[in-house]
Amino acid sequence: MARQQQADGGRGPAGASDTQTKQPQGHAAGQLLTMRQAIELLKTSRPTFYRWVREGRLVGTKLGRQWRFQRGDVERFLAGQAPRIELRADPAPLVAALAQRLEGLGVKGYASDEPDAIARAIALMVRLAVAMQASDFHIEPYTTGGPEGAIAVLRYRVDGVLHPVARIDIRLLPAIDERFKGLAACDVRERVRPQDGRILARVADTGRLMDLRVCFVSALLGPSLTVRVLDPDVVHLLNLDRIGYAQRDKEKLLRALRAPWGTVIISGPTGCGKTTVIYACLNHLATPDRKLMSIEDPVEVLLPGVVQVPLRPHEGVTFPTALRAFLRSAPNVIHVGEIRDLETLQIVHQAALTGHLLLTTLHADEAARALKRMVEIGSDPFLVADSTKLIIAQRLIRKLCPECSVEAQPPASQLEQAAGLASAGGLDWAALPRAFRAPRGCPKCHQTGFRGRGVIAEALEVTPEIGAALRRAAALDELRAIAVGQGMTSLAADGVRRAAEGLTSLEEALRVL
Ligand SMILES: [Zn+2]
Questions:
Q1: How far apart are CA 35 and CA 53, in angstroms?
Q2: Do the Cβ atoms of 337 and 358 come closer than 8 Å?
Q3: What is each CA distance from 103 to 109, 116, 124, in whole angstroms?
């Protein structure tokens, strides 16, 4: 601490800002101090001072990029008094904005009997998520870069795209954060460390139960919340018939699921619907005569008939440790959330080759690459070829809004590209329908022209020919060509087909690849 003060003093005389510290210091409560002055007054070190500010024990304000502290606040802190409480902002505009948005979607007077404005705002936020069919919503403090300083923004993600819905007075954030933490059974007084919580909320007018997963992060400008909206009733929708695979791909998947052993891998980037497919498979397999065990990060939906274990790395529950415990529990079907490392992959191979059906996911943009990826992670190509039955790679595409989409003739360059992708991907371009459509936009689709999402996929069966190619380290192109030769429709070709059928726009189909 002494060194810190010395260092500050030593640097002082040369700096221009130092003239300020040498100015006579008045004692008016309203006098603003620079951070240096406040630190000097408190005779502390810079890190300790930062901590006090972060913890909210000392109140400061930002003037542009510089912190300023009221002498009165610093003196209150020295005297051991509680920080001055800033006047709370008015939540009424936020409540009104949310209520108005809901009314636009046909929900009137929701939670209007709730006397507490913050509680009402939160009820409206959750109800709006249901009305908009949002997968998640976000409350985030930002700097505006302008004179108004910082604001908070409320955004909802619908069909994978974020939509700003309201601005929130940043002074309301602590109260909103505290209320959400209380609902999520988190530590309300913990304002710094990240926390995760879960809220089961009953939507009053529909009676539906919502499962909300809230993630709290403390940003420099204030608390930031992410709320994922899960619908527990979704279990009934987790049906392989509803996934929307092409008939031939669905048959390949059902055939692989009928096998008593082997690995089925769903691959694709984050947010491509892998988990939904895995849950639909587990749902399909969960009959009273089978034992199913699942290690997940996190458990998103509770499934009847499946022993679901959440990943808890800090308590020693990792994919490998859980898998080893599963193998001692004699299950028929095992689901491993994701293959990320060689250790997990090796136990997956071992489990598959000792009479278990394995379901898992892998980060890879196409099915052939997922095969190569396992070898790159360090696995023996012989083991990969012998234990893997089927790899599905998929993407989600936005579906055109049925209310407003219009017939369209895509430009020649796009059609040419589509024809190339279709024939390279195992589809007969000439035999495809030409029912191309384009988005327009209406109130039902929030003017985006799209509503809901569908899946496009390719299903690669690990045949003896594929296995032989993998063992001789064949290139990606060759693996893909063999698969297409054996009847695989590529992801790109599947996307072109959806566009040709008018389910999505050709532009959207080409965009997601
Ligand atoms: Zn529309």
A1: 11
A2: no
A3: 8, 20, 11
Residue type, 316: G
Of 63, 85, 107, which residue is a domain's last?
85
CA distance 488 to 482: 9
Tell me, what DSSP letter sits at residue 277? H
Residue 270 is assigned to a structural domain of this protein: yes
Least Cα distance to 335 among 311, 317, 360 occurs for: 360
Domain check: are 195 and 78 in the same one? Answer: no
Cα 432 to ligand 1 centre (Å): 26
E strands, 246-291, in order: 262-267
Report how many helices (DSSP H) and strands (DSSP E) the chain contains, helices first.
20, 18
Q: Please give the residue range of the domain that contains residue 464.
A: 234-511
Q: In angstroms, what is the span from residue 444 Cα to ligand 1's centroid? A: 5
Could you tell me what percentage of the chain is helix, strand and coil, using 3-state DSSP and rounding each to the nearest 5?
40, 25, 35
**CA 249 – ligand 1 centroid, Å:** 30
Q: Which helix (H) or strand (E) covers residue 98, if one does?
A: helix 92-104
- Do 162 and 251 lie in a common domain? no
What is the whole-number distance in angstroms between the Cα of residue 369 and the centre of ligand 1?
A: 37
Distance of alpha carbon 272 from alpha carbon 5, whole angstroms = 55
CB atoms within 10 A of CB 180: 23
- CA–centroid distance, residue 344 to ligand 1 (Å): 45
**Domain co-membership, 205 together with 257:** no
Please tell me the distance between residue 368's alpha carbon and the centre of ligand 1 in angstroms. Answer: 37
Instruction: Give the mean pLDDT per block of 10 residues along the chain (513 residues).
Output: 37 36 42 88 89 81 76 84 68 94 92 90 95 94 80 92 92 93 92 92 87 94 93 77 93 97 96 92 96 93 93 94 97 96 97 97 96 96 97 95 95 95 94 95 89 94 96 96 96 96 95 83
Distance 437 CA to ligand 1 centre (A): 13
Ligand 1 centroid to Cα of residue 490, in Å, is 29
CA-to-CA distance for 93 and 106, rounded, in angstroms?
A: 20
How far apart CA 471 and CA 69 sit, in angstroms, is: 68
CB 243 within 8 A of CB 213: no
Give the separation between CA 182 and CA 260, rounded to whole angstroms. 47
Q: Is 185 exposed, middle or buried (0-12, 13-18, 19+ CB in 10 A)?
A: exposed
